[in-house]
Amino acid sequence: EDELSRSSHSNPGKSLVNGIKTNPASNSPKSSLPVPVGPPVYVDLAYIPNHCSGKNTDPEFFRRVRASYYVVSGNDAANGEPSRAVLDALLEGKSQWGENLQVTLIPTHDTEVTREWYQQTHEKQQDLNIMVLASSSTVVMQDESFPACKIEF
C-alpha cells in the first residue's frame, strides 16, 4: 500500500487498472494492456456491460466471465446497442470454454440486430448450447416470475 501510495503521488499521470499501472489515456478495452492471468469466473447472471456496446466487451469478457444467463439490454441502434460484434464475441468466447454448459441469453428488447444475429447464427448457438429467450419472455428467479425486460441490478 505504501509503495502504491508513493507511486501514485510521485506520478499522478498513472493509475491502476486490474492492478496494472497504466496511462489514463490508454484505459480503453482495445489498448495493448496485458490481461492478468487467472481462472475464469463462474456466475449465475451477468449483465453485458454498457448496453451490449462494442466499446467495452469483446471475446475475452466471455472467456473470463462464464454465466448461466447473460442479459442484453441494448435498445439504441444509433449508438450500436446492442452490438452485433458483442453477440458474435459471445459465440467466440463460449466456443473456448472447453465445457458445454448451458447458457441463456436474455435480450430485454426486441431489436433488428438481435433478431438477425439469432437467425444467422442459430445453428452455432445450438452447437454451443446457447438458448436465446424472446424479449417478451418471462424469467423465473428465486421463486419470482417477471418479464425479461425487468431484470435490474
Automatic annotation (TrEMBL):
GO terms for cellular component: cytosol; dendrite; microtubule; microtubule associated complex; neuronal cell body; synapse. InterPro entries: MAP1. Residues 20-31 have a biased composition (Polar residues). Residues 1-35 are annotated as: Disordered. It comes from the Eukaryota. One of its GO terms (molecular function) is microtubule binding. GO terms for biological process: axonogenesis; dendrite development; microtubule cytoskeleton organization; regulation of microtubule depolymerization. PANTHER family: MICROTUBULE-ASSOCIATED PROTEIN (PTHR13843), MICROTUBULE-ASSOCIATED PROTEIN 1A (PTHR13843:SF6). This is MAP1A protein. It comes from Galbula dea. The gene is Map1a_0.
